Structures are given as structure tokens and as C-alpha cells.
Amino acid sequence: MSHIVFFLVPGVHLLDLAGPAQVFSTTADFGHPYTLTYVAEQPQVSSAQGLPLAAGLDWPDLGPEDLIVVPGWRTVALADGPAIGAASLQALRNHHARGGTVASVCAGAEALGQAGLLDGRHCTTHHDVQDELALRHPGAVVVRDVLFTADDRVITSAGIASGIDLALHLVATRHGPAVAAQVARDMVVYARRNGHEPQSSAMLRHRSHLDDTVHRVQDLIDARFDQPLPLPTLASAVGVSERTLTRLFSRATGLTPLRYQQTLRLERAQHLIHHGATIDAAARSVGFEDPRMLRRLRARTG
């Protein structure tokens, strides 16, 4: 079980907090247990939207598998933000030093900067305060206009809704892209990755739609991509005709169900080959009876 601790400061933005919290809570609903805890320097914190939030005062014992998230707060300038106590900054430093991960949303990057965790690392924040973050923490490498960055267990996001992207990235890293896609679908959000990089997984790349029938077919293919999955079997599983399924699937993803399955197989085979497997062994592992099919697909994609 992993512990997620949200460190709250006065003026915290509700969506900066609620977005990542919902991602981890939904992930727990799908059988990957998380404990969510809220810590602050006072027992009640006023949010930027006026809703008072209760929080604990004591930091729990954390291990390397645990995460601290600092949601952002309402501010015109980082220099005018709420004061953060030395003990809280030390808690951030200690957790990272012990092998844990720290993350921020929006202006929360300022807290990581004050803790010295941005020095020499790539980071980002809301576009309104990117320049100021770079000036206040000259040792940081501020990456502008991206959804989030990840550098040596320090993860920062641009702000507001991008905290959801950050949390989905962490879920995909820990549990795989299929789980992240499942969570995104349940939350009715796009399963996105970083704003300046192509999405690295087909399971996420082709999930940016809201067609529930297609999602259910993708769930089946994701779980059994290394097995024969004839079109009649897939169509029967979701209660539509083969022609309807092909039309819906192509409209939502740009691929036929077979091409989607082949894409997953190819992606997994490439991973195995890069880790030392032979082409023949990788082909068998992902369900190709004839390794020549894998060779043709690899040649087609360059």
C-alpha cells in the first residue's frame, strides 16, 4: 500500500488538490490500494474558492514508495505567496532524500524550490509564474508550456487541471498504461501524457475519446492482446454487429480492432527486444505465430 500525502497551504486551489486526489482514489477503487492523508501547518486551511479544509498537523511515517504532493495556491506573484515553515520544507527534503517522490501542481513548485529540490532539475509551473520561478530559483531548469516534468523523483505540473495529467502519469508508471487509461475513462478525462512529447503507449494514445463501446473493446484487447481475438468475438462481447464495431472503433481511434491489437503487440515486442529478447522469442511472447509478421510490422514502422 502506498501513502499519498497532500501538503496544503492557505489559498490552495481546490482543483489542484481534488484532481490528483481523485486519480489516486479512483485507482484504489480498481484494486490498487492508496492511503490519502492531508497535512497542513494549521488544522484548517481556507481554499482559494472559499471552502475551508481540515488537515492534520503531523506528518506520517513515509517510505520510498510513498508520495508527497504540494497543490498550488492562488497568487499573483510567487513572492507574495503564503509563508511555508522550515519544518515543512525539511519534511519535503527528508522524504526525497530517503528515496521518495515529491510532486507539485501549479504554484506548489515554489515550495519545492524553497526546499532546494528544484536545483539542477527540470521543472514547470503555471505559465503566469514561469518566469518568476526561474528568477527565484536560478538553479532550476524551468521548462515552459508543458503539462508536467519528471526529473529524479521530482515531478512538477503546470497547474489546475494538469495535476490530473501528473497523477495519471504516476499511475501509468507504477501500474501500467492500461490502469491509467481505465482510471481516465472512469473520470471521463483524456488520458494524456506530457505536453511536448508523443504519448509513449498505444494504450493511452488511442484512449482520447468518449465512446464507451470502443473503450470496452479496448479493455478486452488490452488484457488479452497476445491471444487470438476474432472480430466476431469482440463484437459479440459488446453486443453490436461486426460492421458497427469496425465503424465505431475506426472513428474513435483511427484504427481497426486488429490494427490496434497489432500495435499493442508490436509495442510490447519492441520492449522485449530492447531488453535482450530475440525477435523470434519476442514474437512468440506477444502472440505472433510467425516471427515474419513481427519483422514486417517493425519494417513498416521504421
Automatic annotation (TrEMBL):
Pfam families in UniProt: DJ-1_PfpI, HTH_18
Keywords of the record: Transcription, Transcription regulation
Highest taxon in the source lineage: Bacteria
Identification of the protein by name: Transcriptional regulator
Molecular function per GO: DNA-binding transcription factor activity; sequence-specific DNA binding
Family annotation (PANTHER family): ARAC-FAMILY TRANSCRIPTIONAL REGULATOR, HTH-TYPE TRANSCRIPTIONAL REGULATOR RV1931C
InterPro entries: Class_I_gatase-like, DJ-1/PfpI, Homeodomain-like_sf, HTH_AraC, INH-QAR
HTH araC/xylS-type domain span: 215-302
